Task: structure prediction
Amino acid sequence: MGNLNNMGYELDWDAQIENDSPQYVTLPKGEYEFEVVGFERSRYTPTPNAKLPPCNMAVLTLKFEANEGTAVIKHKLFLHSSVEGLLCAFFTCIGQRKHGERFTMNWGAVLNATGRAQLGIREYKDKSGMERTINEVVRFLEPQTELIQQPIHPSPASPVSPVSYQPGRF
Result:
């Protein structure tokens, strides 16, 4: 019943309309920052010959903004031990988890979280048989840590002697 609220509402035959569909954009392959703009709890029901059994599933709506436009992607995360690494990568990407850390997933803090992901392009045929492209998340990237360089000071025990160039001498 909860999903019915996300489906919109019925229009009367003489209703006024104004909301155009957003312009669909397929971004070039590459790394992009994203924001989680939607999150739904769902259930995965496999088809015959599926690789996963029935399990809980998170359906994320990710927004990627770039010079070419804005791409909005639905991405599914399956709550199953065989793909636990993908869950770890997502939570590490959004900064909730450190690499290698044991962690309890905090789904309440996922909405509006930001991270960085590598996008690919998938080709498919729509219902009319027309070939289309869509972006897909290839992998979630760990947050980049800035390297802090500390100035190197010679220790008093080892004085630094000036070095001069001498050809042929090593």
About this structure: The first strand starts at residue 30 and ends at 44. The two ends are 78 Å apart (CA to CA).
